[in-house]
Design brief:
heterodimer, A: about 120 residues, mainly beta, six-stranded mixed β-sheet, B: mainly beta, seven-stranded mixed β-sheet, globular
Amino acid sequence: AQKVTQAQTEISVVEKEDVTLDCVYETRDTTYYLFWYKQPPSGELVFLIRRNSFDEQNEISGRYSWNFQKSTSSFNFTITASQVVDSAVYFCALSPLNSGGSNYKLTFGKGTLLTVNP
Amino acid sequence: EPEVTQTPSHQVTQMGQEVILRCVPISNHLYFYWYRQILGQKVEFLVSFYNNEISEKSEIFDDQFSVERPDGSNFTLKIRSTKLEDSAMYFCASSAQGYGYTFGSGTRLTVV
């Protein structure tokens, strides 16, 4: 069974602060994908990143960075110099990398509500 | 950029009524999914569909639910007799390779 834990239910920061959202996962699969999605108040799911279990290199995209550590089963997400527009619910998710071709279902964490105050 | 289109964006229905939620996946995609998100909760897998059949369904996806790809472009989720607890946001997703989803913007279903 797969499980994703986002222990932080809510985080509140002031604009320009850095913030890290934690994600810990459990899986018996040896190969898998990890994802982060953003859900703004409008409700849609916005894809942010996909990483496969082979690649533990950290990634940076503008103000966003991700730290994947297989040894601790964590895939944390940092927003540098946060902005009000970053306010949203952020979900971490996990899927098999090779399921035999028919199903790559995503298992989501419960999400972290980030509020960035001006 | 190609999109997954869901209609309607919001549907209100009476308890016990049937509803059909519609999705138009990206045209060359082969894998299709429905997910559900009860307000304030996490997104949960309902069902996956590949090669014209269900490949996996969750325990939520009971006999009240069904999926169809009736005409090669639409992908529908039917709830036969809605209950109050079916009120949620329903997301359709499609994928070319299985992973790397594109989600639709969701249909908010309210059962009264």
